[in-house]
Design brief:
This protein is an alpha/beta fold and 520 residues long. The protein has helices at 18-27, 37-45, 85-93, 180-191, 200-212, 227-239, 256-268, 279-286, 292-318, 331-337, 359-363, 376-385, 390-393, 413-432, 485-498; strands at 8-11, 32-35, 52-55, 80-83, 97-99, 105-113, 126-133, 136-139, 144-150, 155-160, 165-168, 219-222, 244-250, 273-277, 324-326, 366-368, 441-455, 458-470, 502-507. The strands form four sheets. It has a nine-stranded mixed sheet, with helices on both faces. Strands 14-13-12-15-16 form a five-stranded parallel sheet, with helices on both faces. The protein has a three-stranded mixed sheet with strand order 17-18-19.
Length: 520
């Protein structure tokens, strides 16, 4: 997206929840931007100040961080919200003490206001919130006051007595935190005195402005058929359809529903979609490979090789040269691969994404990522604006490496087939029970564990399939849903009866965090 001036600068200290802070700000209709500490320092040095600052959490301790953050606090009129590590920075700067935690406080916690006069936004006296920290503010200076404590006695909230500064040890941006939205709105509206300036129209107009700027250039789209690449392609196509070419790499790690969906898109979307059949090459490369990160890297690098070879061939055959590579990259793709915008921040890599980087360097082509700074729900809002069918917009997310990260251990065609058949059963039963639109994502995982079973009065020693179904708002956190027993029973019965070689079905009831949605 074209860079506009944003009211709120969110400084990323490495929290996996940083994107959720931005999402909450935008839900409340306030524009924001996430930057690294280095970016923030440069902006402050050149006088390009935001109207408010939010300091994210992070995995480090102030005792291990030797950087000087004084520049953040020297403007006495700047509204600042410090979250988790951000609050510890506030406490430390204002001459308090931060105690190194001996244990990790993680998950739900009760906090309460110390006095009624400290309560804001008509919140109740006690709140159920989400904690994720080890260190904590132990004492504060006379400039600050403690407004919230946790039931374990930890300081949960501080504020400055004369400046618009608020610190929170918990994470109001996380869906699990009660009244988190209201708390962030209190800071933006009552402390920072900001005006609402963000909407679906804002997103659309900025993206169209960006795409208009490249009209007439040949655009190559790495097309997956998911809502992200589909919306990105349709946005470009509505401006300059004749110069957009979509290439879909079939790596053989797709579900039956994906093949039928691509066929429908070829017939009904109006997009120029080219299919690259590379199934054999991918299976050959992945043979005997069990490590999840190695699998992701092989799938990603092979994707690049196949994609580049096909594109070079296409350019020669048609006498054209592509100027831009269009990708449906989202915020969540970037934050889980590396720091925001790839500028070397402090966030920890959870897993690599094969659609972030790689191709431009190999192909000497510039990236076009119009969705890079927006979230999945904002992408779907754009899809609605483009009048795409609901089923296209609300398809469950599917990872780029596909079933490759849903087969635990080495990949084989037989194992992939088990997941494909199991997934199709899950899809059919979700639709039959009218549950598809009630869950965020549903899939099966092949577990490299054999168990004893009984089939037809005989002993069976066969494979295990895990059923993974979650609900989520943004993919950053997730919970498993309470599904009808007869649905689960039907799915289990069908898989063990219809999928050859499967004796047992288990149901994963792990939330994210501590788990991830995918198993690898």
């Amino acid at each position: 997206m074209i860079k506009k001036i944003r009211q709120v600068l969110i400084i990323d200290f490495g929290s996996q929840y940083t994107q959720l802070i931005a999402r909450k700000c935008r839900e409340l209709a306030y524009s924001c931007e996430i930057v690294t500490v280095e970016d923030a320092k440069e902006r402050f040095f050149h006088g390009r100040l935001p109207r408010a600052v939010i300091l994210s959490g992070g995995p480090q301790s102030i005792y291990e961080d030797n950087e000087n953050y004084n520049f953040l606090f020297q403007n006495e009129k700047m509204p600042i919200l410090g979250i988790c590590y951000g609050m510890q920075l506030l406490g430390h700067y204002f001459k308090g003490t931060v105690q190194k935690g001996k244990t990790f406080e993680y998950g739900r916690a009760l906090i309460f206001f110390l006095q009624d006069k400290f309560r804001f936004a008509n919140l109740p006296q006690t709140l159920d919130v989400w904690m994720s920290h080890a260190d904590h503010v132990a004492t504060i200076s006379d400039e600050l006051e403690v407004v919230l404590k946790s039931s374990s006695g930890i300081v949960a909230g501080i504020r400055h007595k004369s400046r618009p500064i608020l610190g929170l040890q918990f994470h109001p941006e996380v869906h699990h935190s009660q009244y988190g939205r209201e708390i962030i709105e209190y800071f933006l509206k009552e402390m920072a005195h900001l005006q609402k300036d963000w909407s679906a129209d804002t997103i659309y107009l900025e993206i169209v402005e960006q795409i208009n700027a490249i009209k007439g250039k040949k655009v190559l789209c790495a097309f997956s058929g998911g809502v992200d690449s589909l919306v990105a392609a349709k946005l470009v196509a509505q401006v300059d359809p004749s110069n957009l070419f979509c290439f879909f790499v079939d790596h053989g790690l797709l579900r039956p529903q994906d093949y039928s969906h691509i066929k429908i898109l070829m017939e009904q979307s109006g997009l120029n979609i080219n299919i690259i059949d590379a199934k054999k090459l991918f299976f050959d490369k992945l043979a005997l490979v069990g490590d999840p990160e190695t699998k992701r890297k092989i799938i990603g690098s092979t994707f690049i090789d196949v994609f580049q070879e096909k594109v070079v061939q296409f350019e020669k055959e048609h006498g054209i040269k592509f100027d831009l590579l269009l990708q449906g990259t989202l915020y969540s793709d970037v934050i889980e691969s590396k720091s925001p915008h790839g500028k070397g921040g402090k966030s920890v890599t959870i897993k690599s994404h094969h659609n972030v980087g790689g191709l431009p360097d190999r192909m000497n082509i510039k990236l076009l990522e119009p969705l890079r700074e927006i979230f999945k729900d904002e992408v779907r809002a754009l899809g609605k604006r483009l009048e795409l069918p609901k089923r296209w917009i609300y398809r469950h997310p599917f990872p780029g490496p596909g079933i490759g990260i849903r087969v635990m251990g080495p990949i084989s065609e037989e194992r992939v087939a088990i997941v494909q058949q199991s997934d199709q059963i899950v899809l059919e039963e979700l639709e039959k029970f009218q549950l598809y639109d009630n869950v965020w994502q549903a899939f099966t995982v092949f577990l490299p564990v054999k168990t004893v079973g009984v089939k037809g009065d005989g002993r069976a020693y066969e494979e295990v399939v895990c059923l993974r179904i979650v609900n989520s708002v943004d993919g950053m956190t997730a919970n498993w849903p309470d599904l009808p027993y007869n649905f689960l029973q039907t799915v289990s019965s069908r898989i063990t009866n219809e999928v050859s070689g499967v004796t047992r079905v288990v149901y994963d009831i792990t939330s994210k965090p501590p788990g991830t949605i995918e198993w690898e």
